[in-house]
Amino acid sequence: MIPDRMPKSERSLSAAQFPHDLLGRLEQPVTADSLQIRDVSVPVCYAEFWTSKQRQAKSIHEISYRACFKPQLPSFFIRRLTTEGGIVYDPFSGRGTTVLEAGLIGRQVAANDINPLSRILVFPRFFPPNEADLNKRLASIRDIPDVKSEIDLSMFYHAQTLRELLSLKEYLLERSVSGHEDQLDRWIRMVATNRLTGHSKGFFSVYTLPPNQALSAERQIRINERLDQQPPYRNVKEIITRKTKSLLRSLTGTDIENLRRAGAAALFMDSEADDTPELLSNHVDLTVTSPPFLDVVQYAQDNWLRCWFNHLDQGLITKKIKCLKRIPQWRHKMESVFGELYRITKPGGWLAFEVGEIRKNTVRLEETIVPVGIATGFECKGVLINSQTFTKTANIWGVNNNKCGTNSNRIVLFRKIV
Ligand SMILES: C[S@@+](CC[C@H](N)C(=O)[O-])C[C@H]1O[C@@H](n2cnc3c(N)ncnc32)[C@H](O)[C@@H]1O
């Protein structure tokens, strides 16, 4: 399917001009176009590169995070542009889609995200637990009968659910400060963090927004009034067991082995993406990433309950994750990030940079990012636009939560010249 927006007069390039190692093995038809930026003509390819025709992604990815991409996206590049043991990196790692997919495929990984919640959500999933061990650990966590919350959360939780949740929070804090926190504790923390609020019985809270957009207490009170609802009792340990089963359901023994191996050697950082001295120069084979897009996502506000549960300072996250609302600001930051990505990429290595569909596609960030990459020293191999069959909730070019323009599929591909 060719998107309507492609000007007919520009449909001149052959898909063969796109790197053969990327498109040569594609079964779907590819339509080619070009993007003229100053004196550089960059190929633009439209196809259904991933999604509906591909096999299901692994269940271990199923953690909500704002503006995350589908695992099929990094998978497409990792499988084509790296080999066994190659090093895959994501400087804006989020829920860790790139690095988990790379681990599953038998690659080494490095991840960075300035939001400390990212590591809490990503690292434990490299170490999937044995379900019996997990249940034994959960059973050992005592409920503290007189535990009290320092803030009023009664609009989200039934009193008994809140007691269970606070007991778990205390347990995890004690394990962490005493230095006894292990992979099972981290797994429990990760699942609980993901189950704090949501819109179904699989969450600890009464009905609210999806889990990555925690409402304020005041707004939740209004929702409860409007829907005439009271928080029902939800069994915290049972929900953790159920979500664990679901996360593990499609993992094979080889998947688990690959994840553990990658996790044991992984580098996790929570720095600014343009300041990662822990990563060696000329080290990474492939980076697959999507940066924060202009003003679309409020990571700190959306995550206030996750911060509360994990004793993280929400104010600090607000300060650290700067909202770059205007293109010149955004470009300036990306120039600095590209400098760092150039340093850490091996000669001949790749960078797949997802730019999103912003403001109903009136802003084309590839037009900003192509010159940034070229000025840094990368060769721009082209832009891939994943066009897929429309669904009920889809916007133009097909992804399913495009209302705010964040979950898009426009990727600029660069290579560091040997
Ligand atoms: C679009 S999301 C990435 C989502 C990711 N691709 C996934 O699938 O989960 C962008 C991420 O960049 C992080 N971030 C924002 N500013 C950053 C910065 N200056 N340095 C590093 N990470 C940053 C945010 O915390 C957020 O997790």
Provide the descriptors you would attach to this structure in a database record.
15 helices, alpha/beta, disordered N terminus, 418 residues, binds S-adenosylmethionine, Rossmann fold, 9 strands, nine-stranded mixed beta sheet, 2 domains, 37% helix
Distance between the termini: 35 Å
CATH class of the largest domain: Alpha Beta
The CATH topology of the largest domain turns out to be Rossmann fold
What is the global morphology? globular
Bound molecules: S-adenosylmethionine
Number of strands: 9
What is Rg?
22 Å
**Domain tally:** 2
Number of helices: 15
Q: What number is the mean pLDDT? A: 87
> What share of residues is helical?
25-40%
CATH superfamily of the largest domain, called what? Vaccinia Virus protein VP39
Uncertain runs with pLDDT below 50, 5 residues or more? 1-16, 390-407
- What is the spatial order of strands in the main beta sheet? 1-2-8-9-7-6-3-4-5
Order of helices and strands: HEEHEHEHHHHHHHEEHHHHEHEE
Major sheet attributes: 9 strands, mixed
Structural class: alpha/beta
In the CATH hierarchy, what is the architecture of the largest domain at level 2? Answer: 3-Layer(aba) Sandwich
Secondary-structure topology with pairs:
Layout: H1 20-23, E1 31-37, E2 40-47, H2 72-81, E3 87-90, H3 97-104, E4 108-112, H4 116-122, H5 131-140, H6 159-177, H7 183-194, H8 217-227, H9 236-248, H10 253-265, E5 267-269, E6 284-289, H11 299-302, H12 304-309, H13 314-320, H14 327-344, E7 345-354, H15 365-376, E8 378-386, E9 410-416
Helix pairs in contact: 2-3, 3-10, 5-9, 14-15
This protein binds S-adenosylmethionine (SAM).
